[in-house]
Specification:
It contains 11 helices and 37 strands.
Length: about 625
Amino acid sequence: MAEQPQWWIGTDEAGGIPNPGRPDVKPPAHWRLEAVAATERPRQIELSPDGSTLAFMLDRDTSDVWTIPVAGGQARRVTTGRPLAAFWDDGNAVWSPDGTRLAFAQGGKVMVVAAGGGVPVEVCAASGPVWLDDARLVVGVDRDGRTVLAVVEIDDAWPRPLATVGADYVTAVVSPDRTKVAYTVFHHDDLNCISLHVVDVATRESRTVVHQPGFQLRSPVWSLDGTHLAFASEWPGWYEVFVVHATDGTAPRQLTTDDADFSELAFTPTGESLVGVRTRHGVADLVRIDAAGGEVALLAGGGTWSSPCILPDGSLVAVHESFTSPARICAVALDGAVGELCAPTPAPVRTAPHVVPVHVAYRSLDGTEVYGWLYRPAGATVERPCPAVVQPHGGPTSVTGDEWDGVAQYFLDKGYAWFAINFRGSTSYGRDFERANHGVWGVADTHDCLAAHDHLAALGWVDPTRVAIFGASYGSYMALHSVVDDPDNRYACAVAKYGDCDILTSWAQGDLVGRLDLERMMGHPRTARAEYTAGSPIHRIEHLQVPVFIAHGELDERVSPRQSQELVEALRREGKQFEYVTYPTEGHGLLRTEPFLHFHRRLERFLDWYLMP
C-alpha cells in the first residue's frame, strides 16, 4: 500500500540509488525526537515597571506573549495564535510605562494588548516598538529600503518621522525623563558601521553621539540621571563597555578591558554599576560592571545568559540555558544563588543523560587556530571508533556556545560523536577572528571545516571514514563546500539544510537583510565577481563524490528555496547521489513539529545508512 501524502511535505525525491533505511538500527536508549520537539523555549523577558511581573515570549506551538509573577506562580498566556518565529529573528513584548499594556511586533505590524488579557489591537505597519509614554510608541517604519525612526500615537496610528539620518534604525531607548531617544543606526554606505545618536522628541533635533567608521556598537542604555549613555563597541577588538556624555560632545570613555564581548547592559538601581552579559569563546556569563572603574564581577557563570532584568532589591531574573539544560527563566539572588522561575522542560529531557562537550582549538589548513565543542559518546574507544558529525553553525556572524542542543544529544545517545565548530567568522573570539572570513566566503572557512575532519581523524576514537558534515543556512553552505572543494574527499556524506549553493544568485533572490549582510562581508558582486565565484560551489559541482541530503522551507525569504532547486538540478545533470525534501509551511528554520520531526527522522535515516557500521 502506497504511503499517504502528508501536508507538511512538498517535494520529496532522490537521485541515484534509493536509501532504503536501516531496519536493524534501534532508537537510542534515552532520547526521542518527540521529546526534543516538545521542549519549549522561554526567551526575551521584560520586567514590568513596578518590578512585579515578567513578560516573555514562549516558543511552543506558537511564539506567544506570556507573563509570570516575579514572586512565582502560574504563567499566563496573554496572546494566542501568534505565528511561530525563529528566536534569532523575533522581537520581544515591551511594557507600557503604567504597566497596563504590552506592545510587540507580529507579521510586519506593531500590536498592543492589555497585559491582563484581551484582543490585540493593530497599531500600524512597523517594527521594534518602544514606549515613549503611555499614549505613544517609538517604532521603525520601512520606506524605500530604509527603516526610519518614527513616533506613533496608539489612538491615531499615523507614524510621524522622528529621526532620519540616511541609514537604518536598529534599536532605541527612551531617556528616564522621556524627552529624548537614543538610537543606533546601520549605515548602507559603511556596512560595518553602527553608530549612536540622540534625538530630542519635542524639537526632533538629532545629534551624533558616537560614529566610528568601520566599527559597530550595541546595547545603549541611559544612566539614571539621563546625562550619559553606556554602550558596547567593537572598536578595541572586542565589544568592550564605554560611557559617553549624551549631549556635550566629549569622547567616549572605555570602561572595560576584559577581552570579551559585552551586551544587554542595564544600570543597577543605585547607578553605581551596570549588569550585562559577557561572552567569551561561546560562554555567556552574567556580570556586574563598576560604573566608575570598570571592574567586572561574576554574578552567574557558565552556559548562556540573556535578557537580564534587575529587580528593585538588586537581584536579577534572566534567561539561562546550557549544554545540559534547555532555556529557562531563572532568579539570581544577591548571594549568587540561582533558582528556576519558569522551566517548561519535559520530564523525559530532564531525566535523559546529557553529554558535556569540551572546548577544543585546532589548526586550519593555513595554520589559523579555530575552535569547536567536541562531544564524545559513551563507548567510543580506539578499539571501537565511532562515526561522527561535524556541524558548522549558521550566520556566519554567530557562534555555537554553551547552549542546549537536543538533536546533538539524540545522536550522541545513538553512538555518534558531534563536533560543533566555530570557524573563522564566529563571534566571541574577538573582532579580528570575526572578520577573518570577509572576502573569502567558502574558501578560508571551508579550510576550517576540512581541518575539523583532520582533527577528528587524529583522535583515534573516531572512524575517519565515517564522518558527515551537517549544517543549516551558512552551515549548509559550509557543508556543501566541504564535499565539493576537497580533493581528498574527507567527508562520507553531507547534509545541506536551507543553504546557499551560489552566492551570486542568492544575493539577488534573498531579502534585503541577507543581501546587505552578504555585501558587508563580501562586497558588492559588481566589484567582487571573482570572490563570489570562488565562494559558490555550484560552479564545481562535478567534483562532488559523496551523497548529499538537501532540505529547504518553501517560504524561506532569507535563503530562497531556489538555491536548493538550483543545486538539485545540477546534481541531477551530473548524475550525483542525493535526497531532496521541501516543507511548504516553513521559512528559514523548521519550526513546526511535523516538519521538525520529519526532517530529523530523514537525517537519522541518511546518517545511519552512510555512516553506521
